[in-house]
Amino acid sequence: MPDKKGIWGTGRRKTATARVKLTKGTGKIAVNGKKLEEYFPLESMHTYINQPFQVSGLEGQFDLHVNVNGGGSIGQAGAVRHGIARALVEYDKDLRTVLKQSGLLTRDARAKERKKPGQPGARKRFQFSKR
């Protein structure tokens, strides 16, 4: 169960890392000291980030304080979502099956493939010349 300092969850996606602190509250979300709407301006990102709360039926019961760094905005949103799901499991172990079935506890391991030496990109090759 939670202590007085809240429940922590760490989420990762691509090169982004989010540290999420869950405390009992009214549903306020602060990301890097800003409101959710300021930090993530797209409405689609808000629904993406709030997905763990919708699946578990705990919307509006927790305040979130999120520190996120690295990656781009989509990767950061994915890291926040992953961190929220992990923190909810710390809060209540019974939520694990619901969140796991929804795919919210699985870390999305897709990342940019590295450039190989002697090639212009990760997969692209230089043009073949027979002569």
Total DSSP helices = 5
The H-and-E topology, N to C, reads as EEEEHHHEHH
| Main beta sheet strand tally, sense and closure | 5 strands, mixed
Quote the beta fraction: 15-25%
**How confident is the prediction overall: mean pLDDT?**
91
Share of helical residues:
25-40%
Rg of Cα set:
18 Å
Concise account of the structure shown:
This protein is α+β, with helices and mostly antiparallel strands and 131 residues long. 33% of the residues lie in helices and 22% in strands.
Give a structural overview.
By secondary structure, the protein is of the alpha+beta class. 33% of the residues lie in helices and 22% in strands. The chain has five helices and five strands, in the order E-E-E-E-H-H-H-E-H-H. It has helices spanning 36-39, 43-49, 51-56, 73-91, 95-101, and strands at residues 7-13, 16-24, 29-31, 34-35, 62-69. A five-stranded mixed β-sheet has the order 1-2-5-3-4.
Helix-strand layout with pairing:
Elements: E1 7-13, E2 16-24, E3 29-31, E4 34-35, H1 36-39, H2 43-49, H3 51-56, E5 62-69, H4 73-91, H5 95-101
Parallel strand pairs: 3-5
Antiparallel strand pairs: 1-2, 2-5, 3-4
Question: Can you give keywords for this protein?
Answer:
131 residues, five-stranded mixed beta sheet, 33% helix, alpha+beta
